[in-house]
Amino acid sequence: MVDLKETTEDSPARKPSGPLRRGWTTGACATAAARAAYEALLTGEFPDPVVIRLPRGQRAQFVLAEAKLENGAATAGVIKDAGDDPDVTHGALIKATVTPAPAGAGVLFAAGDGVGTVTLPGLPLPVGEPAINPKPRAMMADAIGEVAAEFCATPDITITVSIPGGVELAARTSNARLGIVGGLSVLGTTGVVIPYSCASWIHSIHRGVDVARATGLRHIAAATGRTSETAARDLYRLPEQALIDMGDFAGGLLKYLRDHPVSRLTLAGGFGKLSKLADGHLDLHSGQSKVDVSRLAERLAALGADARTVDVARNAPSAGAILSLAHDSGVAAALADAVAAGAREVARAALAGATDVEVIVVERDGTIVGRAGF
């Protein structure tokens, strides 16, 4: 239940240099809107700006973009500012409509336009519930409680969260794969968006594993990008819930599977990223690990490549250039197989025997060039 950045096999989202501005999560925006709407329901007046308390104790202020009170319901809206993070919901209108609920009901939640519904087990919400995560629910309940205490009211209300355009935005996230249909998730653990944080991606990896396990899948495939994911999916005709968008976070996947195993894992990726895994790196991002071209040159030599090819490989600018040299020498498949075997051994060590694993190396055109099987 997380917004993932759109990536391709060759051009993942990259963190720009320099200081980056933080933003607010969807959950924080929904909390601000709900607090303002509830106060208006009680008093007839919308606080603007509205101030909320975040889970770690700090206060945050939001300006209302919409405020409407009619027919016994109050609606407030906040424009989400995700800071400098490439969040698909940046600039979206996050709305909360507050209506009275039966006495003793407490604070209830409903999904409005653009907010999804949970349809598969394995997530931290029951099937059939609005995709409003537990932490944002707690934030909203706390904010409502503060308002109720201030005005001596009993908070028996329904909060309906809506995100106009959320259905279209959700198509750019992993929600459908996780069984969240009809729109976006309302997320946020701290209320603050840290630009280009790996935490949200790793969270999505874990939830993907949880859903796969809860739906009885015994074989999953994790890929570094779309091209390699397509190759793994087509190889086994795997369902969507078996596919994990691992990105660069091999360690985040493997360490979670060690404690939450499945029977079989197919790791799929490009030659360069898997060569880094074969060298023992669990974070495959270019800012965290580098391709060891000398090691790849040694592998070429061991496969019988001529001395000139090996010398050129030692000074190659990229793993792709070395794979091209291997193609010219007729040993590309053998080199890719060796890299796959090395990556498999590193993965096996990280999994500690909990899950059987294979590795497939995929070229940019989607061809499987190397493989180390189960």
Please outline what is shown here:
The chain has 374 residues and is α/β, with parallel strands linked by helices. 36% of the residues lie in helices and 20% in strands.
What attributes does this structure have?
374 residues; alpha/beta; CbiD-like; 2 domains; five-stranded mixed beta sheet; 11 helices; 20% strand; disordered N terminus
Largest beta-sheet characterization: 5 strands, mixed
Order of helices and strands: EHEEEEEEEHEHEEHEHEHEHHHHHEE
**Which assembly state applies to the chains in this document?**
single chain
Q: Compute the gyration radius: what is it?
A: 24 Å
Low-pLDDT stretches? 1-12
Mean pLDDT: 91
Percent of residues in helical segments?
Answer: 25-40%
Share of residues in strands? 15-25%
Total number of helices: 11
Category from helices, strands and their pairing: alpha/beta
What is the domain total for the residues? 2
Cα shape: elongated
Instruction: Let me know the number of strands.
Output: 16
**Strand line-up of the largest beta sheet:** 4-5-6-9-7
